[in-house]
Amino acid sequence: MSTPAYWILRYEQRILTLPADVTGPLLPFGHAADFGLADEGLAAGQFDGHPCRTADIATLPAHLALEATPLRALFPQAGDEVFALAGRAVQLLDWQQQHRYCGRCGTPNTMKHGEWAMQCPSCGLLAYPRVSPAIMVLVRSGKRLLLARSPHFKPGVFSALAGFVEPGETLEQCAAREVREEVGIEITQLRYFGSQPWPFPNSLMVAFLAEHAGGEIKPDPAEIEAAGWFAADALPLLPDPVSISRRLIEAALAGH
Fold first, then answer.
1. 9: domain range?
2. Helix count (H) and strand count (E) of the chain?
3. 69-108 pLDDT, tens per residue?
4. What contacts 217, CB < 8 A, 6 or more positions away?
5. How far apart are alpha carbons 30 and 17 in whole angstroms?
6. Could you tell me if 159 and 191 lie in one domain?
7. Which one, of 158, 149, 105, 144, lies nearest residue 127 by Cα?
8. What is the mean pLDDT of residues 220-240?
9. Residue 219: exposed, middle, or buried by beta-carbon count in 10 A (0-12, 13-18, 19+)?
10. CA-to-CA distance for 85 and 39, rounded, in angstroms?
11. Please, which residues have CB within 8 angstroms of residue 212's CB and are 6 or more apart in sequence?
12. Are residues 149 and 244 in the same domain?
C-alpha cells in the first residue's frame, strides 16, 4: 500500500483545503485512493514530516469537507509554507499537462524516474518544468521611492518595476533595461535583495535595490499606467504581504 501523504489537490484551478476552522494543517492527508485518484500524482516536497503530493482532481470527494480556494487567496489562511508548496504544485501540474507530447517528434512523453522531467521514449528529448527569471527593481532618490502601476494590478496598487530576463542577458543588464524602458531613467548602485518563486504563472522573481542616476520619469504607456516618486508618509496602496515586492518596499522604508 502507498505511503500516506499531504495532498495539494487542484479542482477547477483552485486548491482544496480543509475548512479554516479546523485545528491543524489545512492540507488534506491520506492515500491517493481516499480522494478518488487512480495514481500517486506528482511529488511536491515535504510537509510536517510527511511527503506532499499533488494532482488535479475532476470531482470533489463527497465524503470529505474540502474548500476550494484560489491560489492567490491561500496565503492569508495557510501561511508561507503551504503557499510555497501550493505554488510549486500548480507549476508542476501545468508543466505535466503542457508537455504530454514530445516537442521534437510528437511522441507521448513519460515521466522520468527520480526527477521532475518528462522524457520522450522515442528520441530521448527531456522537458523540465519551466522557470522564467524576472527582475524587480526598487529605485530610490534620497528618501523617495519610485513606484509604478501596471494595468493588471488591483485598483490603486503601486509596486516596484519588474520585467522578464531576455535570452543572453544578465540580471544586471535586465534591471537597467527594464527601468529605462518602463520609466525612462538610469540607475546606479544596483544591489541584490532577495528572490521568490512566483507561480503566476512560473516566474522566479529576483529583487534589487538601486539608486536614481539621472533622467526624468516618462512612463511607457504600453506597460505603465502611472509612476512617480513617493515619500514614506504619502505611499499609495502596496502589493500583498506575500509578495517579495512588498518586502522589498518595506526594507527600503526601513533604511536597508
1. 5-98
2. 3, 15
3. 999 888 877 888 999 999 999 999 999 999 999 999 999 9
4. 146, 183, 184, 185, 227, 228, 229
5. 13
6. yes
7. 105
8. 97
9. middle
10. 20
11. 139, 140, 141, 146, 185, 186, 187, 188
12. yes
